[in-house]
Amino acid sequence: MEVVPGIHTIEGLGAGRAYLIVEAGGLTLVDTGLRGSAKAVLATVAAVERGPDDIRRIVITHHHGDHTGALAELAERSGAEVLAHALDAPVIRGEQPPPGPRFGGPLRPLLARTAPTGAPARVDRELTGDEELDCLGGLRVLHTPGHTPGSISLYSAAQRLLFTGDAAMHLFGVRPPLRLFTEDRATARASLARLAALQIDVALFGHGRPIEHAAGRRFRGAAERLA
Ligand SMILES: [Zn+2]
Ligand SMILES: [Zn+2]
User: Fold this and answer.
1) Which of 135, 211, 218, 221 is most exposed, with the fewest beta carbons within 10 Å of its own?
2) Which domains are delineated in the chain?
3) How many CB atoms lie within 10 A of CB 14?
4) Residue 80 CA, ligand 2 centroid: distance in Å
5) What is the separation, in whole angstroms, between the first and last Cα of the chain?
């Protein structure tokens, strides 16, 4: 589905969403869905009359398996440059185990086993949060830690448009990420408050429906409830 001209949300991934940005210079993919999602992603690429080779870059918002699941396959099939924050890159590469759920008592091992994982994948460029990508008239990488240490969001000031990753979710309203897999809740709340200070019309979430108009008000409301 095309949310705004040139930006498609990829649904049918089982958990969460990925996004495809279509520009004359090539395609940018934001996240990849669960393992096994490559087919759905490439169907969206085909629907805009492009092929896997046209994917120029893949930006991963954080290391969780519902965002990195199909990365290894898509990176290989597209040859795209893969970007992720330096703090999450070791988990994405499989050099460090994911930290697992934050609570659950005796159920923790079970929860850890059922948490989605991605196959180890390459990361070509490690981000710090000061970059501006050559996309959507300048897409700023914002380091929004808490959910994971290397969580990022992507912001286009020109289009007043934000990809939140999991730094915010749109589930029964705009809210901070779910507790179970959020590594540091206080930091995650602070990141959401920082996002609320941006000028945002369009918000594109890792989980939940996009907000296409006046999204900033909803973020400010969420930040006020947390304060
Ligand atoms: Zn996550
Ligand atoms: Zn997620």
Assistant:
1) 221
2) 2-226 (3.60.15.10)
3) 14
4) 22
5) 35
Helices marked H in the chain = 38-47, 65-68, 71-78, 89-92, 108-114, 185-196, 215-226
Measured in Å, residue 24 CA sits from the centre of ligand 1 at 30
Ligand whose nearest atom lies closest to the CA of 31? 2
Ligand 1 center–CA 16 separation, angstroms: 9
pLDDT in tens, 122-142: 999 999 998 999 999 999 999
d(CA 15, ligand 2 centre) in Å: 7
Residue 54 sits at φ, ψ, to 5 deg, of -80, -10
Which pair of structure tokens corresponds to residue 209? Answer: 């429906």
Q: Is the pTM of this model over 0.70?
A: yes
Ligand sitting nearest the alpha carbon of 67 = 2
Question: How far is residue 110's CA from residue 37's CA, in Å, rounded to a whole number?
Answer: 23
